[in-house]
Amino acid sequence: MNPQKETILDERSLTPACLGILDDDGPLFLEKIRVFSRRMTLRIPFETSFGRFDSLVRHFPAITFRTEDGTTVTGIGECSPLSAPWYDYECHRSVEVALGYLTASLTGKSVDEADGAAAPGLAPVTGVESFLGRYRWIVGHAMAKAGVEGAYWDARARLRGVPVFRLWGGTKSDVEAGTSVGLEPTVEDVLRKVAVAVEEMHIARVKVKVKPGRDLAIVEAIRKRYPSLRLQVDANAAYDLLNPEHLARLKELDAFGLMMIEQPGRNDDIFDHAVRLAHLSTPICLDESILHAVHARQAIALWKQYSAPSRLVINVKPPRVGGYLEAIRIAVLCAASGVSVWCGGMHESALGKTANVHFSSRPEVNLPGDHVSQAPYFVKNVAESPRYEEGRLTVPQGVGWGLGELDLAEETETP
């Protein structure tokens, strides 16, 4: 195949209007930004190689805008980092610092002077590109950026009196929901959790975590018990794609009819995934490797050269890619080349999880997302999550995120 003859969309051409996004309700004058921070206790603590966590800090930027006729509206978003920089470089402490710079940029003040109030004479934002342009100079810090962009969209939707997904070009009234099962001490422990997902929750898809030496036996046992289950595995960068033994193990997974193998190699790699895994028949899903639409375009080009786009899947997490406009842009790039898309999760509160459901209502998002768990993440959430039934989640139809009043009773307010 000659890659020069293959046409791939240029992400620079994917403007909000081209993406079917509604964002033309006139200028908005930013009046004030507040950030609410809340430590949320997990019902079930999780462990990594360097520690055990029983809570997560969630930051909720609240932005108040004023229209030309004097109407005011406040939108709220969520920043959903993990407690330490093991998924990527962000954590709740780095997000707190980044929000200070974002607040300063959006309000027209220096970071030392920023108090959340807009500078006198601050020009209005005229659309999402105008809004994002105020802090485009800030490198990285995707999760902080996703939170403030979420507040913008919530405010825009409230002004129009519609749910956010209507602004984003969403077309589905409900979305398929999958669940994730982590590594457990024994294969039987994993099977018990899979049984709950399949037989009690009637989930649309099950994802199980794997790593070298704890992969083939788990997948074989699940497939033996549930031959037709929509099953995928997630390696979280646990395999060395230059190690022949690891490559052989990944090849053996071809025997089990998996939907995909998610992020088997390094979380900063695109090239080796395409070249070293071209011999697999199981699709490869990129998660941590895709930080923006440029990465998605580059991955698509590599799969067209070394394999086929139908064997590439991209997990689009809006917090990982810096927000919802970029997430939609990536989804459209993928769909144009026959690459499947789904939406993963970051242990969001009900607000962040609901935002993911709104995004998943886009027609390009064609695989079940990580939208539900076997038990609620948090002891106390900020709202009720969207209604789940028989493998599907209802897309909220209320104004904005459709959550009603948020319960932030335990939050700590910071400027």
Task: Please describe what this structure looks like.
The chain is of the alpha/beta class and 415 residues long. It is 29% helix and 19% strand. The chain contains 11 helices and 14 strands. The strands form 2 sheets. Strands 4, 5, 6, 7, 8, 9, 10, 11, 12 and 13 form a 10-stranded mixed β-sheet that branches. Strands 3-2-1-14 form a 4-stranded antiparallel β-sheet. Strand 6, helix 7 (244-252) and strand 7 form a beta-alpha-beta unit. The chain is globular and about 65 Å long.
* Discrete helix count: 11
What is the typical, i.e. mean, pLDDT? 93
Instruction: Please provide the count of β strands.
Output: 14
SSE succession: EEEHHHHEHEHEHEHEHEHEHEEEE
Helical content band: 25-40%
Which structural class best describes the helix and strand composition?
alpha/beta
Rg, rounded, reads 21 Å
Anisotropy-based shape:
globular
Query: Beta fraction of the residues?
Result: 15-25%
Let me know the largest β-sheet. Answer: 10 strands, mixed
